[in-house]
UniProtKB/TrEMBL annotation:
This is FHA domain-containing protein. Residues 1-12, 95-105, 151-161 have a biased composition (Basic and acidic residues). Residues 1-33, 85-109, 128-169 are annotated as: Disordered. It comes from Microbacterium sufflavum. CDD domains: FHA.
Length: 169
């Protein structure tokens, strides 16, 4: 067995792992709270309407009929759009994926409000695409290589084969 130093470069042909998991993996959910009320809402459908209307997936009292939506997009990201008053983590102009809109790509810990309710997005780290290789703030461009592009997902939510070696037999 050959021992490796932590400073040794990987062998030629080495392919690093990624945080790309199956579409929707990581138990994506919203933690919902108001005063002493607390609950979790699983994001297990591709669109969640949040508000007081009877047909909404997440009904919350004292909100507009459709106050916000959370969409599971084709990048396997969860994106919130506010349709009424509320706060988000960032300035709407600062979110590079949705400039100028009241829309934000959610990352674990992202917070937004609808009426008197505070909602916080959570997704198990291995599936939260916000940091490459599950990395922490800082260093990924100087110390960690960039992650390969996200896999294509086919219509049934499974990863599409990336090469002949990935295809099922």
């Amino acid at each position: 067995m050959n021992a490796r130093h932590i400073d040794d470069r990987p062998d030629e042909g080495y392919t690093p792992g990624t945080t790309h998991a199956e579409r929707g993996a990581g138990n994506p959910r919203l933690r919902v709270r108001r005063d002493d009320e607390r609950t979790e809402f699983a994001l297990d459908v591709d669109e969640v309407r949040i508000g007081s209307a009877a047909g909404n997936e997440l009904r919350l009292a004292d909100t507009e009929p459709v106050h916000a939506t959370v969409v599971h997009d084709d990048r396997d990201e969860y994106v919130v759009t506010l349709h009424a008053d509320g706060e988000m983590n960032s300035n709407p102009d600062a979110d590079a994926t949705h400039p100028g809109e009241r829309t934000e790509t959610l990352r674990t810990g992202s917070r937004f409000t609808v009426g008197p309710w505070e909602l916080v997005f959570a997704r198990d780290e291995f599936a939260d695409h916000g940091r490459p290789y599950g990395g922490r703030l800082g260093g990924e461009y100087s110390d960690q290589p960039l992650q390969p592009p996200r896999p294509d997902y086919d219509g049934d939510g499974e990863r599409a084969p990336q090469s002949d070696s990935d295809a099922e037999v």
